[in-house]
Amino acid sequence: MTSYQVWAPDAVVVEVEVGAIPYPMARVPDRPGWWQGEAPDGDYGFRLGGGRALPDPRSAHQPDGPDGLSRPVDHAAFRWSDTPWHGRPLPGAVVYELHIGTFTPDGTFDGAADRLDHLVDLGVDFVELMPVCPFPGRYGWGYDGVSLWAVHEPYGGPDGLKRFVDACHRRGLGVILDVVHNHLGPSGNYLPAFGPYFTDRHHTPWGSAVNLDAPGSDEVRAYLIGSALAWLRDYRIDGLRLDAVHALVDHRALPFLEELATAVDDLAAATGRPLFLIAESDLNDPRTTTPRQAGGTGLTAQWSDDFHHALHALLTGESQGYYGDFATDPYAAVARTLTRGFFHDGTRSSFRDRHHGRPFPPAYGHRLLGYAQTHDQVGNRATGDRLSATLSPGRLAAAAALVLTSPFTPMLFMGEEWGATTPWQYFTDHTDPRLADAVRQGRRREFAEHGWRAEDVPDPQARATVLGSVLDWTEPAREPHAALLDWYRRLIRLRRDHPELMAGDLGSVTVDHDAEHGRLTVHRGPYRLIVRLGGTEPLAVPLDATYTGTMALFGDCWPGTDDTLYLAPDSTALIRVDR
User: Fold this and answer.
1) Boundaries of each Glycosyl hydrolase family 13 catalytic domain copy (predicted)?
2) Widest CA span in the chain
3) Is 280 tagged catalytic?
């Protein structure tokens, strides 16, 4: 017999069902709201008040999807390889974000593992997986997951994830997992039947907020923290990316994020392995990544959309929506983010129609992840177009150089390293026809407000939408993709070999620019990154120092007289100078 437990504080009768037979459960005397009982081992569910069997909220395996029964998992039974893995810290690393379902045509953990040698050759240090919790259907981004302790079965289930993590560690790659605590998907969410996992005290863009501060929130917080620790402990994952933490409404004296960070630090001490948390936050609040001893929340790092927006406006000239403030003077915006971290650090945001942010401490640039593309910034466009859809290879190379020589922790989005021509679009596989149509029509309405025709917005439910988003692995061997891939490899290698190019001290970075002639120069110790955008003739760039050699070049440049360097249009040069 196996012991089963579940938290269902408002239930009068709770049973565990195994093999279509219900077995009674009793209240646990010293754990309010908890029930326990014994039944045979097998696929199981919990019946509340005589209703149908529901999946276990803490299920680690949903072989038939989020609506099916749960299956016990013996994590100790998995055979990890003998290759030692002691982890590695995030500072100084390069992160690579990927989506299991579209990284390879197989759309599985094993299929992704077959491509890990490409990432090793590229030189990245961490693979960041988009969410892998179960969701209805086969295809989706993963942000509508509903079983926060389990692994999407079409990807390979629990053992598939472990095989992938093990394969990464054998190759010296760490693994980061994107987890979603701020909401659950609209379909297959049975948590409200068990207890007050959500509260109407607060509302979010997805409806009622996750209950972090109302009655019953102790157990809800324990549920989320337990899920986070399970990924790090049972699957040996190295860090978690926390989705949209600004949507975690929490008015308790001890914030949930601080409690989570403390628990993760305790697990790191117990395992002897560096473990970390990365926030996605829209707050521009440096306290998110300030250590707890200094009065902060204690997360390790956060995504930096300000740097992305400035870079995107510079490269594309787009000025709609939140790009507006950055597009006014994009050269100055890039310079500001490279030297101050946040663009909005107490300044007025026209998009928000208010002042926004606080100054970022200059010594800790590595606490910000810098990127030119992410799943959000590509996939949430009307047609999922990457930068490669509109930019020349020269401009793509400029974006790579500004990211990979920045004082931030660089992050790449899968395929950008070779300028992938495949889009990455928004796709779903909802099994409820009404929900599927609501998502389809809602997306068309959203982009119609920005001038898009309905027929030009891909249908999220169409199989062609997800298939068109799968990377084409024949591209890296062809030009111009091969040249761009070599450029990424070279920049990552230079970043690793020259500490000045990865130093996180924002105060040591200076930037000068000439918007009229399309020139931006970043000073990093004895190195200068010079980017030339646009123009029709070579541009003479005064160095005010002695040119001693070119370390990396995409396009054309040549030294002139009197410490001058000439750059052709859409060229980027990383050079060394001697003062």
Assistant:
1) 76-443
2) 88
3) yes
